[in-house]
Specification:
Blueprint (H helix, E strand, L loop, with lengths): L4 H11 L27 H4 L13 H7 L7 E7 L8 E5 L6 H15 L3 E4 L2 E5 L3 H10 L3 E4 L3
Parallel strand pairs: 1-5
Antiparallel strand pairs: 1-2, 2-4, 3-4
Length: about 150
């Protein structure tokens, strides 16, 4: 059954969703949430520029920011020349629990810091040249425990 043009217009106007912003929300979606089990807020901490605890005592947040968030495991840093035409390569291996994208991101940081080339092969990061100290520093900053292995 075909409707006339006038019936279609009235039907379309009736089905429209208002876009004027509407009134206030009828209910607060967060009202049912409780703060049970949470520590009370410290008002001195919430105020910007407020003095922290007395001098000589470091706040726990300040102590954690200086150290990596967690120990992400041991990684071995080796210097290899075998099978590479006499060229020296720094190889980082022993990663546990990280994927290829994060290894590529670490390799990119290492290449930029060392000013040389490098790649990710077979789950290991290879950086051109003897760059063990720089690589160890970058891995420490990322939360790993670098260990010099081999010669």
């Amino acid at each position: 059954m075909r409707r006339s043009g006038r019936e279609e217009l009235t039907m379309a106007a009736k089905d429209k969703v208002p876009t004027d912003g509407g009134g206030a929300l009828g209910q607060n979606p967060f009202a049912a949430l409780s703060s049970a089990g949470l520590a009370p807020a410290n008002p001195a901490r919430l105020v910007a520029g407020a003095a922290g605890p007395g001098p000589g005592s470091a706040s726990p947040a300040a102590t954690k920011s200086a150290e990596p968030a967690k120990n992400r495991g041991r990684v071995d840093i080796k210097r290899e020349t075998g099978g590479r035409g006499g060229k020296t390569v720094t190889v980082v291996s022993g990663f546990v629990g990280i994927g290829l994208p994060e290894k590529e991101q670490l390799a990119k940081k290492m290449r930029a810091a060392c000013g040389c080339g490098g790649t990710v092969k077979d789950g290991q990061i290879e950086i051109q040249g003897d760059q063990r100290e720089t690589v160890a520093r970058i891995l420490s900053e990322a939360g790993f425990r670098p260990v010099f292995a081999g010669g």
